[in-house]
Design a protein that fits this description.
Helix 4 (95-112) packs across helix 9 and helix 11 (320-341) runs parallel beside helix 13. By secondary structure, this protein is an alpha/beta fold. The protein has helices at residues 33-36, 45-57, 69-81, 95-112, 133-136, 142-145, 172-190, 215-228, 280-287, 302-318, 320-341, 375-385, 414-432; strands at residues 12-16, 19-22, 27-30, 86-92, 120-125, 157-159, 195-200, 231-236, 259-262, 274-279, 345-351, 354-359, 388-389, 391-394, 402-406. The strands form three sheets. A seven-stranded mixed β-sheet has the order 4-10-9-8-7-5-6, sandwiched between helices. A four-stranded mixed β-sheet has the order 1-2-3-13. The mean pLDDT is 94. It folds into two domains: 12-44 and 319-432, Aspartate Aminotransferase, domain 1; 47-318, Type I PLP-dependent aspartate aminotransferase-like (Major domain) (Aspartate Aminotransferase, domain 2, 3-Layer(aba) Sandwich), CATH 3.40.640. A hairpin with a 7-residue loop joins strand 14 (391-394) and strand 15. Bound molecules: 4'-deoxy-4'-aminopyridoxal-5'-phosphate (PMP). Residues 35, 94-96, 99, 128-131, 201, 205-206, 235, 237-238, 263 line the site of 4'-deoxy-4'-aminopyridoxal-5'-phosphate (PMP).
Length: 433
């Protein structure tokens, strides 16, 4: 297989709950749910049985030839779990496809309203929205985006609130408003008549290390989008499906976006699945104007949808989202306590079980550790050797900095958090030695 990593890794044998086992029988705590995917844990027998039942009937039916109960039931379930008004669902096979779908829907909506000049989608840095050329044009993460310059057409970007780095006398609320005004400034600079949408991760993902914006940011962003008739897109590929302790992260902020992308936790690693969820009025306008010019061969695949439905049923029946909120608070407190012991941990942040800590050489200035240390790789290896998987990146969006995501499956128990913390502490001790 085309080499995806330079690191030697063992062959995976099986997954069970929050654990993985390699072929030698060694056990690992999946402390990052893969790439923040496996929200309900591995090899859940109830989910596998429901998938098997679907498999026995059909694994494929092209969406233009048949409706399927799997996709319609899943769409109904998602609409039920979503905030008010977000009730039109379009299925895809992953996160990048979900974000592409949001961009194309926003642009077709502008066309449907006769606003042909609105083609831009403003995004933020740091941010990650996917690996296709369309989503990369929105991604504010230079190491992945710049090698593909010139982009098909790069999109305008504004800075996301990285308030933990700010050394000013503002309150959190004032900082949130200050960063939101960057959107207004950018819209005016670009010309409001050229902007179709603004896209953001409600809690930052892999490129940012679980950045959380002040509450005041969200309300103001919504107001600014409304002022200029610009659609608000939340990329909930990572945050959606319970990861932050709510079904979607927008629920924390009392703000309803116009379009949402989801993937990762939706089928939680049981199948490749993503979804775009939009307000009815947007979809209806596009449908009345020739229909949505978009779709993939595997859109609405019945097996993937059966997996997604089984995952969401499991979440509801087992109270998994509530557990994510509770265990998230516990794990965050335990990670924060590490700051007393390790002076090089400069920040602990996140929501629910989308948590991260960041290394610094000095907490006053929040200067990162020297680049040559490759701390982000070293700690991950020290933890891996000891049977804990965490996820790291050397970036704080354009600037350097080592951050680590700790995002176990949402089914984790308090006892398993003890286990995770014991291994993490051993790895940090070895790093500090
Ligand atoms: N958006 C966000 C917020 C993500 O975190 C990711 C994946 N890390 C994507 C989009 C792209 O998803 P995929 O890798 O499934 O294409």
């Amino acid at each position: 297989m085309f080499s995806l990593t330079k690191l030697p890794r063992p062959f995976l044998d099986r997954g069970e709950g929050i654990y993985f086992y390699d072929e030698t029988g060694k056990r690992y705590i999946d402390g990052s749910s893969g790439a923040m995917v496996s929200n309900i844990g591995h090899s859940n027998p109830r989910v596998l049985a429901k998938m098997k039942a679907q498999m026995d009937r059909s694994t494929f039916g092209y969406r233009l030839h048949f409706r399927t109960h799997a996709s319609e039931d899943l769409a109904t379930k998602i609409a039920e779990m979503m905030p008010e008004g977000l009730d039109r669902v379009f299925f895809v096979s992953g996160g990048s496809e979900a974000v592409e779908s949001c961009i194309k829907l926003a642009r077709q909506y502008a066309l449907a309203k006769g606003e042909d000049s609105r083609w831009k989608v403003i995004s933020r840095f740091p941010s990650y929205h996917g690996s296709t050329l369309g989503t990369l044009a929105l991604t504010g993460y230079d190491p992945l985006a710049r090698p593909f310059d010139p982009m098909l057409r790069d999109m305008p970007k504004i800075a996301a609130p990285r308030t933990y780095l700010d050394r000013d006398n503002l309150t959190e609320e004032e900082r949130g408003l200050k960063y939101a005004e960057l959107l207004r400034d950018k819209i005016l600079e670009e010309g409001p008549e050229t902007v179709a949408a603004f896209i953001m991760e409600p809690v930052g993902g892999a490129s940012t290390g679980a950045l959380v914006a002040p509450d005041s940011y969200f309300k103001r962003i919504r107001e600014i989008c409304d002022e200029f008739g610009i659609l608000l897109i939340f990329d909930e590929v990572m945050t959606g499906a319970g990861r932050t302790g709510k079904f979607v992260a927008s629920e924390h902020y009392g703000v309803i976006p116009d379009i949402v992308s989801m993937s990762k936790g939706l089928a939680a690693g049981y199948a490749p699945l993503g979804a775009m969820v939009a307000k009815g009025e947007i979809v209806e306008a596009v449908e009345a104007h020739g229909g949505f010019l978009h779709g993939y061969t595997y859109s609405g695949n019945p097996l993937a949808c059966a997996a997604g439905l089984a995952v969401l049923e499991e979440m509801q029946e087992q109270g998994i989202i509530e557990n994510a909120a509770k265990m998230g608070d516990l794990l965050k407190a335990r990670l924060t306590a590490l700051m007393e012991r390790y002076h090089f941990i400069g920040d602990v942040r996140g929501k629910g079980l989308l948590l991260a800590f960041e290394f610094v050489s000095d907490r006053d200035t929040m200067r990162p550790l020297p680049k040559e240390w490759n701390a982000y790789l070293e700690l991950v290896e020290l933890a891996y050797e000891r049977g804990l998987i965490i996820y790291s990146r050397r970036t704080r969006g354009g600037s350097e900095g080592d951050h680590f995501l700790v995002c176990p499956p949402l089914i984790i128990t308090a006892k398993q958090i003890d286990e995770l913390m014991a291994i993490l502490t051993e790895a940090l001790d070895a790093f500090a030695a």
